[in-house]
Design goal:
Layout: E1 4-9, H1 13-25, E2 28-33, H2 36-46, E3 50-54, H3 62-72, E4 77-81, H4 86-94, E5 99-102, H5 107-129, E6 134-137, E7 140-143, E8 148-151, E9 154-156, H6 160-171, E10 177-178, H7 179-186, H8 197-212, E11 219-222, E12 226-229
Parallel strand pairs: 1-2, 1-3, 3-4, 4-5
Antiparallel strand pairs: 6-7, 7-8, 8-9, 10-12, 11-12
C-alpha cells in the first residue's frame, strides 16, 4: 500500500525533522516546508492526506494558510503552535482547522491525532460516497443529489453547470460531444444560449481538473465538433 503523504508546515528545522521521523516510522510519507507560501505551492502538487500546520510562519502565517487551503480543499488540518490563548484556538478551529495542539507536545500524540483525523475524514467520505445517487466513473466520484464531485478522495469545487458537464463527459469517456449536445445536458431549462458558451465552461472545468491532475489535460477539443474526456488512470497517469 502506498504511504499517504502528509504536509508538515513548520519553520523550526529540528522540530520539523522530528515530526517527519515519527510520521515516517508510522507509515506516512512526510514532506516538510518552512513558510506559508511554500506550503501553498507544495500542497497544490502534493495533495496530502493531512496537513500539520504551525501558526507562526514567515511569509504567510498559519491562519492565512488555513484559510487558503479551506477555499479549495477539505483536507484534515492539525494546527501546531506555541500560542496558548483560547482565542487563538477558537479562531483556528473557526477558520477550518480540524484539531489543535499546543507546544510542547509529544510527537507520538501528533501521530495519534493524525490517525484520528484521517479515520474521521475517511469515514465521512465513505458515508457520502454510499449515499443514493452517488456513482463512480473511473477515478471520479459523482454525487447527483448534492452536485458534488471528487477525483479519488479530493473534492472538486465545481459549479452545478460544471458538475453536469463533467458527468456528461465522464459517462462516455473518449466519445466526442458536440457543443449543442453538451449545452442540452448542462442546462435543464433549454435556455437560448450560444453553443460557444460551452467553451467557457470547459475552460473552467479543465482548470479545476488540472489542479488535482497536474500535467494531464483531461478534456480534449476536437476541432469543429466539440469535446471529449480522456479518462486518466486512477493514480493520475494519462490514459494510454
Amino acid at each position: 500500500m502506498t504511504a499517504r503523504p502528509v504536509l508538515v508546515v513548520e519553520d523550526e528545522p529540528k522540530l520539523a525533522a522530528l515530526l517527519c521521523d515519527y510520521l515516517r516510522a508510522h507509515g506516512y510519507a512526510p514532506h516538510a516546508v518552512a513558510d506559508g507560501p511554500a506550503a501553498l505551492a507544495v500542497f497544490a502538487d502534493l495533495r496530502p492526506a493531512a496537513v500539520l500546520l504551525d501558526l507562526n510562519l514567515p511569509g504567510l502565517d498559519g491562519m492565512e494558510v488555513c484559510r487558503a487551503l479551506r477555499r479549495d480543499s477539505n483536507v484534515p488540518i492539525l494546527m501546531l503552535t506555541a500560542r496558548v490563548d483560547e482565542i487563538d484556538r477558537v479562531m483556528g478551529l473557526e477558520i477550518g482547522a480540524d484539531d489543535y495542539l499546543c507546544k510542547p507536545y509529544s510527537p507520538r500524540e501528533v501521530v495519534a491525532r493524525v490517525r484520528a483525523l484521517l479515520r474521521r475524514s475517511e469515514g465521512a467520505l465513505a458515508s457520502a460516497h454510499s449515499a443514493p445517487g452517488c456513482s463512480r466513473v473511473g477515478g471520479f466520484m459523482l454525487d447527483e443529489g448534492s452536485l458534488r464531485a471528487w477525483w479519488r478522495d479530493i473534492p472538486l469545487p465545481l459549479t452545478p453547470v460544471e458538475f453536469r458537464l463533467l458527468r456528461t463527459l465522464a459517462q462516455h469517456p473518449g466519445r466526442v460531444f458536440a457543443r449543442a449536445r453538451l449545452l442540452d445536458a448542462i442546462y435543464a431549462d433549454f435556455r437560448d444560449v450560444s453553443d460557444r458558451a460551452i467553451d467557457s465552461h470547459v475552460k473552467n472545468l479543465r482548470r479545476k481538473l488540472q489542479a488535482v491532475l497536474p500535467g494531464h489535460d483531461c478534456i480534449a477539443a476536437v476541432y469543429g465538433v466539440g469535446y471529449r474526456l480522456e479518462m486518466p488512470h486512477e493514480d493520475g497517469r494519462p490514459a494510454e
